[in-house]
Design a protein that fits this description.
It comes from Rhodococcus sacchari. This is DUF937 domain-containing protein. The chain is mainly α and about 200 residues long. It has one domain. Helices cover about 70% and strands about 0% of the residues. It contains ten helices and no strands. About 20% of the residues have low confidence.
Amino acid sequence: MASLDELMSRIPVDQVAQRLGVDTPTAETAIRAALPTLVGGLDANAQHPEGAASLLSALDKHSGSPLAEGGVDVDAIDTEDGDRIVSNVFGDKKDQVISTLGSVNGAGGNDLIAKVLPIIAPVVLSYLAKQIGGGASPSASGASQGGLGDLLGGLLKQAGGNSGGAGGIGDLLGSVLGGNSGGGLGGLLGGLLGGGKR
């Protein structure tokens, strides 16, 4: 079964740290703050038919990617693609999300979060494409949309939230961040997630 821990285990934290010039614990804290937020944003977008169709199209592009198989080489990740994914997920609230995540204690600040998100976004989409399609190309059918919602919701629930709006996101982030900035982050995300491309 898909889980945030499994997804986290596919991200080579030491390589990310090396690429960004920070120590491994700082990189790990930044990734652990950014990962559920990104999944939460995808989930919020997937609640709307246009957002789900857009996400399924993106998953189709990432299906069969070597990133989905583990053994991720951070230097091979297309961060321009990652930046487009992040912009699509958060829309005009992207800077606000980065600023809020950057204030999490130990996450390395806004600049580091802004660099981490485009690195992990392609890994997340490749992972989801593999989970949805079982390696096959996902399609924008109703069944795939339902499966996508179930998968994203399941990832969020396992992290301690219930993916259905601001409360779930707040609970999720409160648990992931150990309560540090969880309320502010939950309030922010409740208002903006799903504000991306629909």
